Amino acid sequence: MIPDISIVILCYKARERIRAFVDKTIKLIGSSIPSWEIILVGNYVENTDDITPEIVKDIASKNQNIKAVTRVKEGMMGWDARTGLEKATGKYICLIDGDEQMPPEDIIKVYKKITDKNLDLVMTYRCIRHDGVIRKIVSNGYNLLFNLLFPGANVRDVNSKPKIFKKEAYDKMRLTSDDWFLDAEMVIQAKRLKFKIGEVSTEFYKCTHRRSFVKFDAILEFIMNLLKARFKRIS
């Protein structure tokens, strides 16, 4: 049977903390969505002490509705996400980070909107943030630049998750990003394909157990990729 939703959770370096996130997600969707599958992406850097791959495989071994993806990393967030998304079989596909900054309750909010309104893509926008002034400034600047370069997009927070697609809508996209640009690539392609897009507000929490994976060079990477995507569109 095809599940109603496939939830792809990015677990990079989450270690034991991912267990609680998965348990909470299951409790939430179990009472709201008839059938589901979860894909835990525990890709890892070779020759490191990251135990996340073993943990996500253990979680999956105890629940037939959960799959584990544990590959040696060949890219950053975008590559990880694509290795999980390609395993999704549900009528709707959800992508969310498992670092507890984006609450799993949002999955239900986004799923309800995409099904009630018959949309192709629904995503969150972070109206309340607890992740520090610098991150807020960087995020606001990036979203401003994105909407200046792609004025038809009209999204408030391009990098926010969860994002949920209809499966047939997702299958029309040709995602190639291996890095942090994947979120923007999704929105750019969704607008070019004339997807019906919706947004719901969310509260974004501070990650208290590790530093952000988004470094200064990633910000430069964001900007360069936006400019390349805009130039490609014009040409």
Distance from N terminus to C terminus (CA atoms, Å) equals: 44 Å
Mean pLDDT score: 92
Strand order of the largest sheet: 3-2-1-4-6-5-7
Low-confidence stretches: none
Question: Which structural class matches the secondary elements?
Answer: alpha/beta
List the helices and strands and how they pair.
Layout: E1 5-10, H1 17-30, E2 36-41, H2 52-61, E3 66-69, H3 77-85, E4 92-97, H4 105-116, E5 121-129, H5 133-149, E6 163-166, H6 167-170, H7 182-192, E7 197-204, H8 216-234
Parallel strand pairs: 1-2, 1-4, 2-3, 5-7
Antiparallel strand pairs: 4-6, 5-6
What does this entry look like structurally?
This protein is α/β, with parallel strands linked by helices. It has a single domain (5-234), classed as Spore Coat Polysaccharide Biosynthesis Protein SpsA, Chain A. It is 41% helix and 18% strand. It has helices at 17-30, 52-61, 77-85, 105-116, 133-149, 167-170, 182-192, 216-234; strands at 5-10, 36-41, 66-69, 92-97, 121-129, 163-166, 197-204. A seven-stranded mixed β-sheet has the order 3-2-1-4-6-5-7, sandwiched between helices. Strand 2, helix 2 (52-61) and strand 3 (66-69) form a beta-alpha-beta unit. Helix 5 (133-149) runs parallel beside helix 8 (216-234). It starts with a strand and ends with a helix. The mean pLDDT is 92.
